[in-house]
Design brief:
Keywords: Ligase. By secondary structure, this protein is an alpha+beta fold. The protein has two domains: about 100 residues, DNA primase, PRIM domain (Alpha-Beta Complex), CATH 3.90.920; about 140 residues, Alpha-Beta Plaits, CATH 3.30.70. About 25% of the residues lie in helices and about 25% in strands. Strands 5, 6, 7, 8, 9 and 15 form a six-stranded antiparallel β-sheet that branches. Strands 11-12-10-14-13 form a five-stranded mixed β-sheet. Strands 1-2 form a two-stranded antiparallel sheet. Strand 11 and strand 12 form a beta hairpin. The longest helix has 18 residues. It starts with a strand and ends in a 17-residue tail after the last helix. The model has no long low-confidence stretch (mean pLDDT about 95).
Length: about 290
Amino acid sequence: MTPITEVEGRRLALSNLDKVLHPATGTTKGELLHYYATVGAAILPHLRDRPVSFLRYPDGPDGQLFFTKNPPPGTPAWVKTAPVPRSEDPRARQVMVQDLASLMWAANLVVEFHTPQWRAGAPAVADRLVLDLDPGPPASVVECCLVARHLRERLAADGLTAYPKTSGAKGLHLLVPLEPTPSERVSAYARRLAVEAEAELPGLVVHRMAKALRRGKVFVDHSQNAAAKTTATPYTLRARPLPAVSAPVTWAEVEACASPDRLVLLLDDIAPRLERYGELLAPLFDPAVAGALP
């Protein structure tokens, strides 16, 4: 029998609570749902007002994975959606996770949450910049941290402040709060930063995606600033054998990173970190911190 629970006045059917989703730790779907209920206050500001894309992994990371932007079949009428026209579907809409009930409904589908750098009320006008630092083996997060420190200084030279988070996979993301800026302009600036970083750190950085170029280097992926692209939302669980989270870290942790396992954050780590550090990404929501592109 599927348990029924009530969240903020909405009745939700939560299914398969004992199913193991992350085999490396035996983490169950029930534990996944408990995680999202616990960190709801942290993740919701990063989801709210942004059209959400889902990477679904209902049978765990070793099962079928599929990426969807359309509202899944059976989406309740009370889950808000927003128009996000696409060339292949001018009437397309996407889910908006505005509250805890919507978050728990989506989490029950077993998803990674992915969001664009803009809000539904201002499509293709970014309020943040993202740089995705992706290591090509044998490089690891250690090399990503070196590149992150370089980019932090470069951004600061332009009056911009970067905040790091783990990707939840192998690398790091740098998030930069911006005054509202057309995505096309943000994309061009981010690409310029990546090209400059490769020129200044040629043995460490590559700005092109081709895997043949990436061995032992860090790919500075600037492409996620395009209006049509999305990035793993802060605090989302990832479809990995370990229940890894894309979670904020301190610059002190980035500077001290000396081994590939240092910045692996799992779902049980996040609540204690929120108690210890608070919301490290809170400045992303402070208009006084938002910078202007040069």
